[in-house]
Specification:
This protein has 7 helices and 4 strands; from the N terminus they run H-E-H-H-E-H-H-E-H-H-E. By secondary structure, it is of the alpha+beta class. It has one domain. The structure holds iron/sulfur cluster.
């Protein structure tokens, strides 16, 4: 903020400086992330195969949200978008695996995923008010499952307004980001969690989000 309490106006092409990025890393930790890292946007791995995995085997949320495939932006579109950015904040939050193994409608499970959307939207809006007007975030899972779980359909797909416009975002995977490889590249552990996972064998699950900033 400037002294007269107005948001700083930065050059629209300015990339965040190290102290800006450190501020966002610290904020993500304050908001509940367990690991944070600045990564180069060029290192974000986009693959059509990731989106195909939403379709086969079919995810419960496939086609049910404006932010899920086939309605989400395509990897090719995101690849073009990312050319305009240089820096991103990647973060991971660890949650007990037993929470992710609960039913999709379970409140603890919803809260775990919602926390990733909260961190993404807070980082994005903080960067926005710092002058990085084009900060954009991607969360985890489907907003239909974690915000509109009690709605029959997505309001946007019915031609209406999003019911959670400030918080709902596409997930990293819905636009083709290969989260598993990106985690490995960051030097962080992540285990696949599915219905056959045994919580006693894999006690910790990982949820991941990212915000690209300029
Ligand atoms: S209305 Fe609900 S399901 Fe549709 S995009 Fe918004 S949060 Fe997601």
């Amino acid at each position: 903020m400037s002294k007269d309490n107005k948001p700083d106006t930065k050059n629209r092409d300015e990339i965040p400086a190290e102290d800006d990025l450190q501020k966002y890393l610290d904020l993500a930790l304050e908001l509940g992330a367990d690991q944070t890292k600045v990564i180069e946007v060029a290192d974000i791995l986009l693959e059509d195969a990731v989106v195909f995995k939403c379709q086969v085997p079919r995810c419960h949320s496939y086609g049910k949200s404006a932010h899920c495939p086939p309605h989400a932006p395509l990897p090719a579109d995101i690849r073009e978008l990312l050319k305009q950015y240089e820096k991103a904040i990647l973060f991971a939050r660890r949650v007990p695996t037993e929470v992710l193994l609960k039913d999709r409608t379970d409140s603890q499970r919803r809260a775990a995923f919602q926390s990733i959307y909260e961190i993404v939207s807070k980082l994005e809006s903080t960067a926005f008010y710092d002058g990085f007007h084009l900060a954009t975030g991607f969360a985890a899972g489907s907003c239909k499952s974690y915000f509109c779980w009690d709605q029959e359909t997505c309001a946007v797909l019915q031609g209406g307004d999003c019911l959670y416009p400030v918080k709902a975002r596409p997930s990293m995977e819905s636009v083709g980001m290969n989260v598993f490889t990106m985690m490995a590249d960051a030097g962080w552990d992540i285990s696949p969690i599915g219905s056959d996972t045994k919580a006693e064998e894999v006690p910790t699950a990982t949820l991941v989000g990212i915000v690209i900033i300029k």
